[in-house]
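G., the chain you wanted modeled:
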Amino acid sequence: REAVVSTQSTGDNKAVLYHDLEVAPGIPLAHTSSNVLWKLPLPEINATDSQKRDQLLLSPSEGLETVRFGSKLFPELRDVLAMLPGGLGIMLEVKSNIAEKGRIPVPYHGDKNKIVDLILSELANSAGNRNIILCSFCPTICLMLRRKQDRWPVVLIVQGSTETYHDYSDGRLRSLDLCVKLALSENLHGVSVFSGLLTDRCQEKIAAIKESGLATFVWGYHTASQEFRDYLRSEGITGLIYDRIYEDTSLVKRTSDD
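Predicted structure as tokens:
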């Protein structure tokens, strides 16, 4: 088992754990309904900025909690690595904005070299012998992670083209087949596939990825289904990414058998 977490850099060059590229303080935008909140780009926030600490309270109406980790706004990667059990592996997603078709690009995380160097430095200093898999939706980030080190495997997260999400502008990400070819050409460890891409010809697609020699992970809302997870396991995928793993009857059974 591994924990799946997301990391990115703040305005003061700290590697923190936070999934979204923007933080939504409980401040409504002017001339809008109270449900539309002003958003602040995380790369423009200083992780240790005490002046913003009491302002960055996420809206209770959204069912979210305050953004705090001790005296800090966000948990830093080094602190989390120090506090987690040493035997717990981590699948670490490196966040970066990616241009989407028909949408205005968000100019966050412009210097990808700087982000990758920061995160690799933190891992080198704090990861110890922990099992870590690095991953990203951004192919450029994946290529940098792979070429700058060979200690931790790198996985490309595949969204593909579905009705669920906006398509990326990057032509390399248009389809699962193209992403597999990219991962192979750049000697990546594997791909992490959105479950929505496996609603048809699932067995054929998984078999093709396995035959290529790439590790195969699956993420997405379809993995909430116990039946779907059991089917993917029967197909021999490398790993599943989903919430509430201790409610998984198959996982509990295998653990008790071990």
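Helices lie at 50-53, 77-83, 112-126, 139-148, 176-185, 202-212, 226-234, 249-257.

Shout if anything looks off.
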